[in-house]
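Help!! Second protein's tokens look totally different from the first
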Amino acid sequence: MTSNPAHGVNALIRGAQLLTRKELRPFIIIPLLINLVLFIALGAMMVSQFDDLGRYIGSLLSDTPVDTSNMSWWRAILAKGADWAASVFQWLAWLIAIAVVLLFFLVYGYLFGIITNIIAAPFNGLLAEKVEELLTGHPPPPESISSMVFRTLGRELRKLMYFIGWGIVIFIIALLTSWTVFIPAILTALWGAWCMAIQYVDYPLDNHQRSFSELKSVLMRKKFTTLGFGGSVMLAKMVPILNIFVMPAAVAGGTALWVERIWTEGDPGKGPNGKGFPVEQPPITKSKTWPKGIEGPKGKQ
């Protein structure tokens, strides 16, 4: 099975394209409204912190010369030495300032994503179901609305506990290696991409009641594709205004990724028809005519 980060990035683009289908429009209105309300609320909170953030970064990058006119000779020498050392390590201050800004937007993106995912989970499950039916002609196994709501909310809490638990481990490792600057940045980026992939590829698998451990196993088999998809979602969520539209696009993209890149290439579990199938030959509906602009799973159409 091929695994390519570009396939993951393309999956998010594919999800955005699928949202233009009129069949899906009723299922994206509520998630978009939820995103809009939370964007306004969290955006206002973020703007309120800009002044403090600006002052902190300004203090890091301050290059005010030291006034030694009223100092004794030995204090002046110490002050000049400290000023010289500060100028030598000015590049480190710039790195810290950039890291602080990125961390600010990363926290904003994560906070925005966590809240919206919990509130919109049932609606995202419905959207994933309709995307799968559009792509394959096979809806997931039928389920009552009340059962789906409780199941999806429980799944969101399960994912949140996983994210927090391993997030603490990643934070400790990053703290211990903070002197390297780059190791924490790489660890954080990889962990964020992995979390985003789990979050959005989970919806179609959860609709088939696949376990959380199965989800992780499925994604690990195509780890580079997984990280490409999760990384593109993570970056998009960090951009204000754009992040309003990322969630439904990521749900549709995660579903398309599973249908077109995972189960058609040998996911040894339940396919979109709700039945098991062999790794060597995924199920294909021969009589299916795919909607205009939609590519079906690989194989005979």
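Here's the second one for comparison:
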Amino acid sequence: MSFTSRLALTRRAALALGTAGLASPLATPALGQAPWPNRPITLVVGFPPGGQTDFAARVLQNGLQQALGQPVVIDNRGGAGGNLGTETVLRAKPDGYTLLVGNANPLVINPHSMPSMKINPMELVPIGMMLQSGLIFCLHPSVPATTVAEFAAWAKGKKGDVDYGSASSGSLSHVAMELFRSRIGGPEMTHVPYRGSGPAMQDFIAGRFQIMCDAASVVAPFIEAKQLKALMVTTPERIPAFKDIPTAAEQGVADFVVLAWIGLFAPKGTPPEIVQRANAAVNQACADAAIRQNIVSRGDEPGGGTAEQLGEIMRRDHARWGEVVRANNIRAE
């Protein structure tokens, strides 16, 4: 069964469970309490408008409103690498009315790359996956390579005269590049961090560095315009929107499945019946045909699944990226 088919099967099963949960005893409010939700819900996004995390919130906004029967308001609180938005939700009342749209950077990478952090994102309560995206490793057209093996040989021959860009120090694009570098024999490269994917892409196209990876939806326009060369994708199978780009495994890079994910989270102490209802709403929104098409057209995968599955992904990536951060002494402060 393909990666896409497995995701679809998981989403259908989770939607069935979530919908059943709406009518279960767990969803019944205590005597004297109004059922949740009975007023607008705020989705806190720890990044400015325009990025992938903001897109996830906005593409599911209407679907969540329809599923929950209440307005859903988006509150962009960018700052400190996503930590400001995360802290806002960690300190919020656990009543289901302030939720976080969060990604791997502030939740599972920053705790390792920012030793002075005073918050623990792992205390958040997972609700459900909103979308996932494979990364695409790209080369500047000036690099005389079309495969990973050719790039590795070329990079080793440059003896340190190779630069790679990232959205920021400690970002997923940074730690993924370091993991990739170790997988291809550790050629010496210099990291060039930026303040976001947008500025990095502009310099990448201009030839100020030779290689970078980012979410498929971020790099897609530049691949299509032939301003960048696609080297490989980090999904288990090829991305349907980019069927000509081989996977890391097909290129001989073992154990290199890397997914950028965005999920919905609640403050610690949020009642299980609210988490269950919110999870069902996420699954319902992700199953909507128009929403799915909007997500897939960008090269992303619609989310879905159970809260427990999102929690497992969070714990797995927290351990994995912690090892990479420590091995490469990565600091984002």
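Reply: Different proteins will give different token patterns, so don't panic. DSSP finds eleven helices and ten strands in the chain.
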